[in-house]
Amino acid sequence: MKLISFNIGIKIDNSKAIGKFIESQKPDIVAFQEIIRHFDDAVFDMYKSKSDIEKIISKRMPYSFFGPQWIADAMRKNGKMHRDFNGFVEQGNEVISKFPITNATNEHYHKQYSLELEWANFHTEDHPRSVQIVELDIDGRTVQVLNLHGLYSKGKLDSERTIAQCRYVLNAAKRKNIPTIIVGDFNLFPDTESMQIMNKEFRNLINEYKIVNTTRSDYKDDVKKGDSVVDYILVNEMIEVNNFEVIDTDISDHLPLILDFDIID
Predict the structure, then answer these.
(1) Tens of pLDDT along 79-107?
(2) CA–CA dist 13, 48 (Å, integer)
């Protein structure tokens, strides 16, 4: 089976390119971060990523669960327009699957789902953050996928909040003793104490496969190749890893992580 984890970037007009890329890879499961659900037809096209991508890939992967983090009609900084959506949208995470989804929750561990209009204090307060916990029926076996877009931390380093985040995600993943895959943009470097919390009980494939350069693309102006590993896939002992890779593409400001796996009987 094949799983892709991909932060597709809220600020990039790339929905059709993302959809075509996913179709070309023919995965069984996809976990997106920074995907946008729009409510108003007037919303600018680049902020309709959820519906645009699903139009391309839903025929082969008909099951999905979207977990919103916040809702807004625009981002403003000290009252001045920073990013106008031209209508209300939600940003969140989404799992899309070829396999039926039998159970799913969206758990906020930092703030609650809320209307976010003022973004001047983002670096000190951040926006609401959540983790999706999605159970899939894969040929009669239950597999859970945890998908998150992690808290902002200065320099992608530790803070009390990131340590609490990783403890929360780890505990959530261990509630059930079933095959488990944890994916997402943690916004943290590999050598942080926060990531070590995860590594103690889950296999970190970024480390195992020696992905030491980056999981960021050349798209973003202030991130150069080779200085930012922040996206991860981790698995427990009930997942057999056949292959893991990070694919170089510039369709987002992050790179897609691709896991080929089986379930251990």
Answers:
(1) 999 999 999 999 999 999 999 999 999 99
(2) 9
